[in-house]
Amino acid sequence: MPLNAQLQHPFREKPIEPEPEFLVRIAQECRRAERSKQRFVLVFIKGFETARKSDPVVAASLAAVTRETDMFGWYASGSTMGILCTELGGTAAEVARDTILMKIQVALAQAGRAEHLAVSACILPRDVNKPVALEDSPKRIYEYLEPLSSQNLRVQLRIKRAIDLIGSALLLVLLSPLLALIALVVKCSSPGPALFRQTRVGQGGKHFTFLKYRSMAATSDHSLHEDYVKQFIRGTAARNTNDEGERVFKLTQDPRVTRVGRFLRRTSLDELPQLWNVLRGEMSLVGPRPPIPYEVECYEFWHQRRVLELKPGITGLWQVRGRSRTDFDGMVRLDLEYARTWSPWLDLKILLQTPLAVFGASGAH
Length: 365
Description:
The protein is an alpha+beta fold. It has helices at 3-6, 19-36, 48-54, 57-64, 93-110, 139-142, 151-174, 176-189, 223-234, 259-267, 274-279, 293-296, 317-322, 328-341, 344-360; strands spanning 16-17, 40-46, 71-76, 80-85, 118-124, 195-201, 207-213, 240-241, 247-248, 284-286, 313-315.
């Protein structure tokens, strides 16, 4: 019996939630899944509205192959419908995604609409350690989370970018003599380039080249830092004692750091080249610090939000409140508090507090 004949009575078209509500629902489900560590599947059906208008049985065919708990909603109004498939049980998310896709594609084929619709799916929460498809971009979802959900705050984000552009350009010009002097001192103090370039993870998991003044020997082995930072993220790192006798989560006796580099780190002058990253739009003046890819590999899903929601920054709440005195989970909570309460006024407050935190060198090394 043809599928459309079977669907005349037993299956009815499911209600489709409006776009704003559906996107908020997805975002909330991401929050739940980050804590439970139970990921879910989000299906995209592009061209659904056109297909539904020409053949109403299409919606019923989807209802026939989805569960009562699966929710329909507009991912993009009048164009792309989404199906939110939660509660995957013990099934691996990748297996569940492939099974769901196959069922939907078969149902659409039997309804005679398969070639008119583009069907894809992603697994959420997004794992920034894995390659991402276009539809899997978190931007469409995370922009509906607070603090980015209102039009007013989106305007404020544009203000934030304007401040970043003006501030970074102005500081690069005003500090150019100091920048040149530091580069010369670094270059003369030990063999190697003045700038240290490193791949970091930016907003949405995008990699970029991060700049600092070189504070270590050019031939240094970075495995010492990698081992310690992985322990730090897992909560097993030991506290070390800095020059002021503070117990900090930091490699305080790092043999790789040069004498000049130790001074630059203590005063945070090694961070000044990141003004160029801000000017390029890869970073902001204020935001979470950008992690190294091997750090992100150790993240829990809720940790990954610190690189999904906002651009990384040169300074942030962690720098003015906790710095190296704070464990990793505490640092992430400060980053998420910043994302939740962000405003241009908070940025201004953090920027004004940063010099005191730097020159006081509390928690620094």
